[in-house]
Amino acid sequence: MDINWLRDFTCLARTLNFTRAAEERNITQSAFSRRIKSLENWLGTPLIKRSTYPVQLSEAGQQFLPVALETISNLTDVRQTLRAQQQGITAFQRFAVLHTISVNYLTRRIAEFEHLIPNLRVRVYSDNLRTCCQLLSDGTCDFLLYYRHKDVQPVFEEVQFARKDIGVERMLPVAQSTAAKEGGWSLDAPVGAIPYLGYDPSSFLGTVVDQTIGGRMLPLTLRYMDALTEAIKRRMLSGSGIAWLPEGAVAAEMEAGEVQCVGGPDWQASLTLSLFCSYDRLDETGRKVWNAL
Fold this sequence. Notes:
Order of helices and strands: HHHEEHEHEHEEHEHEHEHEEH
Number of helices: 11
């Protein structure tokens, strides 16, 4: 038995797509399929109905899924605890977060309460939303910190975990101030083509922006696309176009007058910053972190 077989299976159970699951697990589809087959051989029964599209879990697969999730979580917890005990140090508190939250929120908050929690050690996994959710689901991390939006469906079973909403942040349409003034860039009164810096449409923030624009026709010309907020921000700061960015990511530049909003409230989106965990699995330090955030 290889714990990676279990992680592969739980990923496939969530995506119901061999190609997507293999991509998320960062292996080839053929290697991924072999590992799923190896798990089925070890158990002695098929876990997947491959004749349907999308694929479905067999009855045995449905029965085995909660066992796989719990086994991954237990093994990960035990490994972390034993390593920490052997080294005589406090275990890492492991966070899975979106890149932009890690850069613009989490690092600052950890610095603020480090003095309240002696010997605090933090391990951050910065990745895309699906991977972050998978890390919490399979027990690789203790906490998940991500944005939620009323028009975007969750990508994992939120009800299985404790949740704390810890803040609200706006997604603002912004541009470098000089470029916006010279180009006349305004979503409220567009006068010509506006260069647009967008998110990968498959990303969470890309979906949020798409929902914000809705069916309204805008003279936006897509000039650049990326999944990372910080990369889009850099392009925006160079004057390359407008972009929707979390307010916290551009607060300092807006205060300095380097960046301005190019659309009113109708063009803004509200994001809820939410923290998730399996509370009963947290150690004493983890519970202090939960209460401090």
